[in-house]
Amino acid sequence: METKVVNKLPTRGANAALILSVADRKHCPKFAIPDESSKAITRAVKRGDLATTANSTLTLHDVPGLPVPRVVLQRCGTARTDRPIASVEARGEGIASALAATGSDHAMIVLDSLNCPTGASIETCAQILTATLVAKQYQFREHPRTELPPPSALKILTFIVDKKFGAEVKRGATQGLAIAQGMALARDLSNTAPNICTPEYLAIQARKLGKGDKSMQVSVLDEARMEKLGMAAFLAVSQGSRQPARLIAMQYNNARKSQKPIILVGKGVTFDTGGISIKPSAGMDEMKFDMCGAATVFGVMQACQALGLKINLIGVVAAVENMPDGNACRPGDVVRTLSGQSVEILNTDAEGRLVLCDTLTWVERFKPHAVVDIATLTGACVVALGDVCSAVLGNDSALVDELYAAGQESADTTWPLPLWIDYQHQLDSNFADMANVGGKGAGAITAACFLSRFTKNYRWAHLDIAGVAWNSGGTKGATGRPVPMLMHWLMGQAA
After folding, report:
1. Which of 68, 111, 136, 295 is exposed most, by the fewest CB atoms within 10 A?
2. Residue ranges matching CATH 3.40.220.10 in the chain
3. Reduced to 3 DSSP states, what percent helix, strand and coil does the chain have, rounded to the nearest 5?
4. How would residue 26 be classed by pLDDT, with cut points 50, 70 and 90?
5. Over residues 403-416, mean pLDDT
């Protein structure tokens, strides 16, 4: 997708669509639309052809005086007061649907106050609209099929904006494009079949990402190296699989050496049967999405590369497959972690935290500014928050607040849950320092409590993305979240 920013209506557009916002029966008046065009548009609106529902669209063809074959009118409603930026995303989705029906290869969006809710910068609006429109064009085309869906028609996105906002809109569009491309990479990796997307496959993809980029160094630890280090909790998960585990580190160094790195840790369970505590067979195919946290890390790393973000960032992927082999770990096993603490494994389907706890100890060596782990960790989080937002918990309130704010500003929201000491007792064990599950109550919180025992030496936050990382049913597939939220946060950190 190519993005452009101009300050007047283009004089030609053979297969283009001009998108105009409409409010209170008026179309956008700030650009030199010929009188005959304006009258035709106004007549259509006054007739009631455009529904009054917010974000409804109406496509007009061959409007007199305009050099484009189509004009898409979109109704602007009152901006949401709870999540204002979400209203911009909704407008982008409405535009994308209208464009898909037309087959236009060029979208021209008039961007002004009608598109931007109060308090939102025009740069952020351009970013959200770009990311949304590009993301809506996504198709998974990696697997061989007798008939692939036709590729998306849309190739060019042009913003028409007052000259004084040109630089801001260009910056926002560039950011939005990078975010959408990062989301596409995350979705491709997550959607790839688990017989292809193994831990070693992820290691290969990391090396490809770092190839030819002097700012990125990639290293991969194999099982022999992890065993020598003492990562027994991590390896307890992989011991039932014929696919060897991998610990992947992508170091992106694009700021001064004295700047401590931010570390993103992604849970990369490439397929999760539950192990000996096996899951029900119905819907188990979706357990290929248990590596969406790892895929998110890949997407963020690529977006940072595309933007040349001035930041030191390390993306760490804990890649493993959880299978019920005769050599698999059992409920009741006790393992020692890299930190020296022991864990009684009560449920082998709570494997993500076993992989993450050793990884979170391992990353201490980088002396991080902050660590954020991203994981499809608990069904309890889905029960609590549904598919609207991810959960955020952590040992540093300022870091949690930053991630919450980034979610509000990016339309990729997250919601804080308490990490109080009152919940820690649920992890008590008679045979080890702790159990790997805490009972029926507060499952998302006790999972984070478990991880908190391995993150005492740095600022840390945990994102449970189980509810937002993929869709089920007829729209089954990865969403690419929370790449937008993390990129918004990292761009703020870089600034």
Report:
1. 136
2. 2-185
3. 40, 20, 40
4. low
5. 96
Is residue 17 within 8 A of residue 68, CB to CB? The reply is: yes
- Are the beta carbons of 426 and 441 closer than 8 angstroms? yes
Q: Does CATH place domain 2-185 in 3.40.220.10?
A: yes
CATH number of 192-494: 3.40.630.10
- Residue 353 annotated in active site: yes
Residues 393, 386: Cα–Cα separation, whole Å: 17
Under a CB-based contact definition with an 8 Å cutoff, are residues 46 and 27 in contact? Answer: no
Is the predicted pLDDT of residue 286 greater than 60, yes or no? Answer: yes
Options 279, 310, 336, 459, the catalytic residue: 279
Burial class of residue 188 in the structure, from the number of CB atoms within 10 Å of its CB (0-12 exposed, 13-18 middle, 19+ buried): buried
Tell me, what DSSP letter sits at residue 8?
A: S
Give yes or no: 163 in active site: no
Alpha-carbon distance of 187 to 321, in angstroms, equals: 19
**Rounded alpha-carbon distances, angstroms, from residue 236 to 37, 219, 257:** 69, 22, 36
Name the residue type at position 151: P
Q: Are 80 and 54 in contact (CB under 8 A)?
A: no
CA distance 168 to 124: 9
